[in-house]
Amino acid sequence: MRFTPISLAGGYLVHLDPRVGERGMFARAFCAQEFAAEGLETLFVQANISTNTLAGTVRGMHFQREPHAEVKLVRCIKGSIYDVVIDMRKGSETYLRRFGAELSEDNGLMMYVPKGFAHGYQALTDGATTFYMVSAFYAPASEGGLRFDDPRLSIEWPRIVSDVSDKDAKWPLLPL
Asked: Which of 44, 99, 107, 148 is the least buried, fewest Cβ under 10 Å from its Cβ?
């Protein structure tokens, strides 16, 4: 695996190093030793799968507050998504800045989302499916979110937003 820092401190794109042969491909998708060598979280307590019927669907921007803040490791295993992270750490040099990248079954990239970041994505293909691991158990009382269309964040979604949950559409806007 290779770890490429993104423009928000603590976030990474994780590249797989596939071995391709006549039988197909093999790649290590997670290795606690390699993550620890980079100073990254190695304990994940849940794994989730999310399928999106239609391209244009947006999920997020979600986060968990302390004491249940979580690290996420996100991969698109079918189709493609545009994955977005936002630094929510007050006092950080990149507070409220965003970073986005395409994750797809073809490029095999994963997004490492540190504690204190909001996370969301847009399905770029019908049936886009994500698999992600989290470092803390879901705690509804610690859940928070940002509006996907908050003008202060100015997220540039690659497609017209075709679907968003009622819950995600009702997160409050950030004060100007």
From this structure: 107
